[in-house]
Write a structure and sequence with these properties.
The chain contains 11 helices and 6 strands. The protein is an alpha/beta fold and 249 residues long. The chain folds into 2 domains: 163 residues, Rossmann fold, CATH 3.40.50; 82 residues, DNA polymerase, domain 1. A 6-stranded parallel sheet has the order 3-2-1-4-5-6, sandwiched between helices. Strand 4, helix 10 and strand 5 form a beta-alpha-beta unit.
Length: 249
């Protein structure tokens, strides 16, 4: 793969462009404070994120057609409450789901997207719903040539249908598979299905995880990747990827 051949960059949004782990952890503080643990035994961030990943994955693949992501977040909140011994609270679940609008953008995202979009088309391929992405778009600082959400496609990554929809949209630009590069943080949600679809990919390793999944083999708010997952480039940040494109001309 040569960067100079890339005509379309597709992006995962939450985890890659948006710091969803910080957003999730902040939105869980009320529930964490109410958790039924012995005094002094607080739920730690990594434990909470791992539980979120497990419940989110189960909820996204429990039914078809897939419910919107706001409903997924409410389901996850209810599941965490059950596991942590907190009484069910539908209103709290809705507040947790709505907090997606407050999840922060990574500090390098907007500037890197502006550089990466010079002479290339930019596409979003996200597991969020349309409303969630609309609340996020102003933080990203660019206009995208296409936005593909799980709500429109009817399935959640890593389903093959999501990447088939991406390839179809890119073909609509008159660009073949070889001109597409997918950019994402999650090896589980994005790189494994990109491998199966024959799409080149860049791992934005936001957690500094390396091959072992970070300290203690933890993958944060994403499920562990399947064996043999691969990627064409690994960058620690979106800014690093933008710099590579700049050097490639």
């Amino acid at each position: 793969m040569r960067l100079s051949d890339i005509e379309v960059l597709s992006f995962d949004c939450f985890g890659t462009l948006i710091d969803w782990e910080s957003g999730i952890w902040a939105a869980l503080q009320t529930l964490v404070a109410r958790a039924g643990r012995p005094e002094g035994q607080m739920i730690e961030r990594e434990e909470a994120l791992a539980a979120f990943a497990r419940l989110e994955t189960a909820a996204e693949h429990a039914s078809h057609p897939a419910p919107p992501y706001s409903a997924i977040l409410a389901m996850v909140h209810a599941g965490l409450a059950r596991e942590w011994g907190v009484a069910a609270d539908l209103a709290a679940g809705r507040i947790f789901a709505a907090a997606i609008a407050d999840w922060p953008v990574f500090s390098d995202t907007a500037a890197a997207l502006r550089l990466l979009g010079q002479g290339r088309k930019l596409v979003i391929l996200s597991n969020v719903d349309r409303a969630g992405f609309a609340a996020t778009l102003p933080k990203l600082g660019v206009a995208f040539d296409a936005v593909l959400t799980a709500e429109e496609i009817g399935s959640y990554k890593p389903d093959a249908r999501n990447f088939a929809a991406l390839l179809a949209r890119v073909a609509g630009f008159g660009i073949g598979r070889g001109g597409l590069l997918h950019v994402a943080q999650s090896l589980f949600h994005d790189h494994a299905p990109a491998n199966r679809a024959g799409i080149a990919s860049v791992w934005i390793d936001r957690r500094g995880a390396g091959e072992g999944g970070g300290e203690g083999g933890r993958w944060g708010a994403t499920a562990p990747p399947p064996p043999g997952v691969r990627y064409d480039l690994r960058c620690a940040s979106l800014a690093e990827l933008a710099a590579l494109f700049a050097r490639a001309g």
